[in-house]
């Protein structure tokens, strides 16, 4: 008799929560836990893709350009770009070229997801033609 009363009370409480949007609010923390951030800290150029002078490297995250600059052999630069995501994040590095019939050069890519969170500082190497780059990044929740 008592048990039956308790169950009835509980189901009434659940019904009330649905009516007021209470259960929707409760699901929010679970959603937030599936998002993460990728922090791109630095980019090091050991050697350029271009044969003469500096490269004009740029970085895209999921297809959007997030940084561009200029680097020559054995030069580094601070990037400090942070992007939030809940799905796979694809990071690509290119060298921009301005000449006719000289398209931008794709130097490489890597992808991260939530599983890569909390592993500390990571290095991504990009080697294409004469280019040799290292990107330093971290994935955090
Ligand atoms: Ca080039
Ligand atoms: Ca170039
Ligand atoms: Ca080119």
* Morphology: elongated
What fraction of residues sit in β-strands? over 45%
Q: Any idea what the radius of gyration is?
A: 24 Å
The name of the CATH architecture of the largest domain is Sandwich
- Strand element count: 8
Bound molecules: calcium ion
The structural domain count equals: 2
How helix-rich are the residues, as a percent range? 10-25%
Regarding CATH, which class of the largest domain? Mainly Beta
Largest sheet descriptor: 4 strands, antiparallel
CATH level-four homologous superfamily name of the largest domain: C2 domain
Which stretches of 5+ consecutive residues score pLDDT under 50?
A: 12-18
Mean pLDDT: 86
Looking at how many chains there are and whether they match, the oligomeric state comes to: single chain
What is the fold-level CATH name, i.e. the topology of the largest domain?
Immunoglobulin-like
Keywords: Signal
Signal peptide: 1-32
């Amino acid at each position: 008799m008592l048990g039956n009363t308790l169950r009835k009370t509980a189901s009434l409480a659940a019904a009330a929560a649905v009516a007021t949007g209470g259960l929707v609010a409760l699901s929010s923390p679970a959603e937030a836990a599936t998002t993460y951030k990728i922090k791109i800290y630095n980019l090091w150029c050991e050697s350029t893709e271009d044969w003469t002078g500096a490269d004009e490297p740029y970085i895209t995250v999921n297809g959007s350009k997030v940084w561009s600059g200029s680097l020559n052999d054995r030069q580094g630069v601070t990037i400090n770009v942070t992007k939030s995501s809940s799905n796979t994040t694809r990071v690509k590095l290119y060298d921009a070229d301005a000449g006719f019939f000289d398209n931008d050069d794709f130097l490489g890519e890597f992808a991260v997801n939530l599983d890569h969170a909390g592993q500390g500082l990571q290095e991504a190497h990009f080697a294409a033609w004469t280019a040799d780059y290292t990107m330093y990044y971290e994935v955090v929740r």
